[in-house]
Fold:
Amino acid sequence: MDYFQIIDGVMHVEDMPLTRIAEEVGSPVYVYSQATLIRHAQVFREALTKAGINNPHIAFAIKANPNLAVLKVLAGEGYGADVVSGGEMRRALAAGIPAKDIVFSGVGKDDAEMAAALKAGIGQFNIESEEEGRDLAALAETLGLRADAVLRVNPDVDAQTNAKISTGKAENKFGIGLHQTPAIYGRLAALPGLNMRGVALHIGSQLLNLEPLETAFGKIGKLITDLRNAGHSISHVDLGGGLGVRYKEGDVPPHPDEYGAMVARATKDWGVQLMFEPGRVICGNAGVLVTKVIRVKPGSGNTPFVIVDAAMNDLARPALYDAWHDFEAVSPTGDRFTANIVGPVCETGDTFAMGREIDKVIAGDLAIFRTAGAYGATMASTYNSRGLVPEVLVSGDRYAVVAERIEPATILAAEHVPDWLA
Ligand code: PLP
Structure:
């Protein structure tokens, strides 16, 4: 459930009309609902606890939405953070998330990032290769520390999602193959700089089916037994994120309650601290991208192009993954038409939808792309020398700009012409 709805003919976020935000902040603009974030965070946690999972460690996957205010809201709900870069760790700390609640994932942590994370005292490193584990152990020893760590396993399961966000197949770059895990785990556990305490997995994002996850968890259960039989003490298992959300009619993502029940079933004999890294399910439907129609141009046949002021650099998912985002007028008239929705960027990839039936809009109208709270603003670029879109957080009848618009002039100011070209 979210808090975006038409009230008196105008799309509101909670009690705030989007027309007011567009007027005062301009467009395009990302708008997030605080009440929706809180609700999703609570529903996810309750789903786990209702299923009997005691004291789950929930680390919000910051990559989905790293805005500081969003992180602050989730910190208030007791969420930790799953980070994949030094920059993300900095944000988590800046939002007041305790270092001990931060998990560091990702295949390419460099020495500077790992040293900073060790010094900050983060809670856990999710190691993705033996080489990374050795580097981390050496850094920790130099600092006189011992890093709490788990080994990310690649269970070779097809998550049945878009290939670009599928992470648990043997050919993907993530984790260690199951057959290699016991030997590598044993060698890493012997290093004085590491406290190896378990395993992690994350098989992909936008999962609409729980079966691949349950299959993967089954493999992990067997691995835990093997590792324990080899004398290792396994106290922590990080089950990653991946739960899908509804982007379009017909998407039926599993309810968090179904996920919780499946997790409880699959892990009932494990006797470990379970950890989770949800991203999209927390923030996806808590945000929209507000855009303005620049003009409507005739297209081939009877299908016009609705040219909006948002583009692929602002919301990359359609160009990257052929992703669908519902498009709705902020002040719908009830009329509908079939149109192609495109942005101003100079490539055909800058297309949000082709031949889609949508609310009838004309030049100057405001509209939203829904479900833009995850992997939206965070993936924005400045392609075509466009600026970066601002972000707004709404709570009830008030709003705040939580990320300023970065104008093209600011980006240009960071570039320099060398002396020899002056
Ligand atoms: N954990 C890891 C290691 C990830 O790579 C991702 C996203 O790809 C997530 C968690 C969050 O996934 P989602 O947003 O699908 O919950």
